[in-house]
Amino acid sequence: MQYWLMKSEEDVYSIQDLEREGSTCWEGVRNYEARNIMRDGMKEGDLVLFYHSNADPPGVAGTARVVREAYPDHFAFDRKSNYFDPKSDPDNPRWLMVDVGWVETFPEKVSLARLREEDSLQEMALFTRKRLSVQPVEKDEFNRVVEMGRGG
DNA sequence: GCCAACGTTGGC
DNA sequence: GCCAACGTTGGC
């Protein structure tokens, strides 16, 4: 079992949207490192910190679970999609996505400011790899953030 | 809306 | 293969 953090712009897709829908495909990742993490790292059942970016405040809003492993992101082939990429060939797809299912919405979002104050979380990729939208999280880090999210 | 960080592109 | 220009992310 491994742990991950995935960022979504709050006004594009939030944990509340995921809670309502139950599960969703995580389309639109257009960064090779993030893609490789989904392709090579994410396994069904892995747990995910769901992070709201471009939010006030930004922070971890809940958790999710990988329910389908990496498969082609067909939005890259859709000319009308914001995620269209003319360089992705349907016969050799450049971009992948996973499906995630809702697990938990925290009573209160764990803000970036609170994460930053937490000594045990200083090594999180959230801080060391600021712009990566899909990133690995250590088990202890995951558990600590969940604890904080539940009010701990 | 600004802008720092940083990944990507493309000329050479 | 270098690196400047460019584009995007994402906090503030």
Give the helices and strands, then pairings.
Elements: E1 3-9, H1 15-21, E2 23-25, H2 32-41, E3 47-53, E4 59-72, E5 96-111, H3 112-117, H4 125-128, E6 134-137, H5 139-149
Parallel strand pairs: 1-3
Antiparallel strand pairs: 1-6, 2-5, 3-4, 4-5
The structure holds a DNA duplex (12 and 12 nucleotides).
C-alpha termini separation? 23 Å
Q: What is the CATH homology-level superfamily?
A: ph1033 like domains
CATH class: Alpha Beta
Helix content class:
25-40%
Overall tally of structural domains: 1
Question: Which ranges are low-confidence, i.e. pLDDT below 50, for 5 or more consecutive residues?
Answer: none
Helix count equals 5
- Tell me the β content: 25-35%
- DSSP, total strands: 6
Rg is 15 Å
For the largest beta-sheet, the strand count, sense and barrel status come to: 6 strands, mixed
Instruction: Based on the coordinates given, report the CATH architecture.
Output: Roll
Q: What is the average per-residue confidence, as pLDDT, rounded to a whole number?
A: 95
Structural class of the secondary elements? alpha+beta
- Give the ordered list of helices and strands: EHEHEEEHHEH
Strand sequence of the main sheet, in spatial order?
2-5-4-3-1-6
| Net shape | globular
Examine the coordinates and then state which fold CATH places here, giving the name of the CATH topology.
Answer: ph1033 like fold
